[in-house]
Structures are given as structure tokens and as C-alpha cells.
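Service request form, structural biology core

Requester: graduate student, group of Dr. S.
Request type: structure prediction, single chain
Budget code: on file
Notes: please return the result as C-alpha cells.

Sequence provided:
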Amino acid sequence: MSQHVMLACSPSGTSGSLREVVLAGPASPVALTDQSASDALAVLTCPRRVAAALKGAGHVDERERVLTGSVTAVLILGLCLFTEQGYPGVLARLWPLLGAFNPSIWMHATVSGSALSQARARLPVAVLRKLFEALAGATRGEVPGMRVFDLVVTAVDGTVVDLADTFENQERYATPSGGRFPQARIVTLVECGTRRVLGAVTDSCARSEQALWDKLVTQLAPGTVNLSDRNFFSMHRWRTAAGTGAHLIWRVKNGARSLPAKVISTLADGSHLVRLRESDSMLAARRKASGNKTALRLADITARLVEFTVTTTDEAGRSRTTSFRVLTTLLDHQAYPAREVAACYAERWQVELVYKAIKSTLRGSGRRLRGQTPDLAEQEIWGLLTVYNALIDQAIAAAVDLGVDPDEISLTVVLRAARDYLASPCESCGHHANGRDLTATIAAAPLNRAHRARTSPRTAHDRRTQHTRNVIYTITITETNLPKEA
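Core staff response, request fulfilled:
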């Protein structure tokens, strides 16, 4: 490998310039300034966080290498940021910025894509997971739209991603019926007001969303209200989630026999107090899952039921009405009126927008993960989640500067700005003055019109023939058809 000296620059760009270093010769010592080239990578991560992830995963480099565990971890994040670039392109972009992660990096022009592939294979998946967990758990300040009823709103949902069609991936990850590629399932807990991913679990698509949620539910916390779609409810999951101290607004299936509940009383706002009882089918499923064939039926529990319709009316006067049924632990109808509970449930859509941002905006529509083995694919999943959160944090910083809701900051703008920021270093050494340049660039871009009421065509045929439409949403609290308690 050819030699490369470590460059440094002063804010003026005169001291330690490229011309001076070349004239001094390759053996001349050049010290790093306080603001090193690696400052720019703070957009994604920092040496302290990477070192903690390596330690948490129990990884120690077996011998001295250019591609240490820390450098490899950062390059994986780079691959997840520059998803359209191959290994050589990402190496060329990030190499000048990696000095703080391995000082000897400056002695080498670069490494090959094959070397990076081998380095990825040596790095445990747990390192990338620890990086995600550290960033996801970092404390953030208050932003507009973060709370409803003075509670931080979170939502849970799942999605799948296509993987490379290799024998190794097929062995660990199932291919769905009618599908072409093996798929991984991801279930996340999202903070709706910021769209940050607070927690995640991943496995083969053969594992259900419910089974993965059972591993994630302990991340719920007091002071929050959690939203979920109708596929997650069971008596056991409801009791477990409520036991964390978080409040719940969970959608449940419609129909008189779909919910094992009876009405205790009807409240002044049209909602109902109900008594939930574990059904025979729920008991059988829980016994099977636990392996305890004699498990006793769970004790009854009181909840509040809000049933409502949402009528969507477009500019041409066409309307569509959908019925909803949600259960909540917010029992006080005066403090938490039914109409506001119903409106809060609409925030669950934020988790869908998170998946769209990760799968379409960041990764790119129709692009499978590049990992050819299960471990490399899982590395990439945690890397994508980490990079996504890092971009969201940039959006939040710009929103705070502008005093607006983070929804008004376009993730597409943030992504392009971050890529440009890491791809356009100064002439001497790749150093960027500070992250304020990136925040200012994001803040100067046009804002999303986040408060528009819009809807998109639902079916594949409609999506081919219709455009997104401006609409008016009307919420109407309705009666329940559940039986009344004797």
C-alpha cells in the first residue's frame, strides 16, 4: 500500500496546507489540530460511542490492522448513508475523515473493497446493535408536537426488508409465500413527535410481529402513551404493556365477537368502560406459546373503549368512511375526551412514515440490502436504523433553531445535505469547520407543509391512476355493539 501522511488544517487553511506537507516530504511529522478531519463524522457517530459499542459487544481486535473494529463500524454506517455507492466509493469519501478512529489510517491511501468485506465479516453484529442502542437511548429535549395529554406519544409497528438472494440468507431468513427474496422482519418503537426510533427487534419474516413485540415491550416507560394497530392486541400483551407504566391507545378488531369484553357503563363523551376477559382462543394461544398447558386464565381487567368513524371527504365531494375501535388505559373521560383520544390515534401513522423514510428515502426504493450473509445483512439493518436516527437528530436540531415542528423538516433535504457535507471536505484534509454549517443548510431549505390534510389512493390500481388528494377528516364518536354486563 502507498503511504499517506496525516494532514491537519487551521481554520484559516494556511497552516499545515497540502502544499506545505508535500514540500516537506512524506516523513515530515504533522500534528492533528483540536478540530480534526474526523469532526465531520460526528454527523453519524463519534469515537467515544464506537469504543463503547465495541466494549459492550466484547470485541477486541486480534491484531493490528488498518481496518480496526472501530473503523469498520464507521464504514458500515457510511455504506448505509451512501446506499447508492459501492465499497470503493464509500471508502474514497470517508477515508480522509477516519483519523480519530485509527491514527494509522493516515499512513495508507486507502484499502480495497475486498479488505472491507473481510473486515465486516470479522465484526460482530452486536457492535452495530450497540451503536444503535446508544444513539436511540440518548436524551433529547422537548420539541413541538411531542406530547398529547402531556404524555410523549410512541407507536409500534413492523415491516419487512428484502435481502440478497444467497444460500446463506435463505438458510436463516424465510422467503414469504409468493415472494422472490428472503426477508427480515423489523419491529420498532417510534417516538411520534420526532419520528426517532427508540427501540427495535429484528428476525426472519417467519417470526410474527407479535412475537418480536413481546421482546420489545419492556422499552415502554411511564410518562408515555403507546399506539398500536389491531394486530397486536391480546389480554397478555395488554396487561404486560400496561404493567410498564405506559398508557395505551391500541386499536382492536371490529365486530361484536372480535373483542372479549362487556360494557360496564357508557360515559358522557360516548366512550365506554369495559371489562376485558381473556377468550378461550387467547388462553389456548398463550398456553401454546409458553409451553404451559395448564396456565390459568388471566384475571379480568377494566379498560376504556372509544369507537368512532373517520370520514374522508375530498375536494370533489367524494367520501370514504372507516370504522375504528380503540382501547385505552386513559379511563378519565373528562381529562381525556373521546374525540381527543380518537385524534391521538392518528399519530400512529408516524411509524409508517418512518418505514417509508428508511426503505425509500435512505435505502432507495426497490434496493435490497447488500449483505450476502445473515450477519452482514443484520449489520446493515442496525446500521440503517442508526444512520436514520442520526439524520433525524439533524432534522430536530434544525427544527429547534427555527422553532418549528420536526415534521416540517424534510428528511430528503437532511439526507442530501448530510451526504454533501461528508463528500465535500476542505482542500487540505477533509475538515469541516463545525456541524453548524450542516444545520444552517438544512434550516435554509424549504419546509414541509406538515399540516396539510392529504390522503393517497389505497389500491394498486388507484395508485397508478390517481394523485394524492387534499381532504377533510371528520371524526364521529359512535355507539358500540358489544354486549352489556349483566
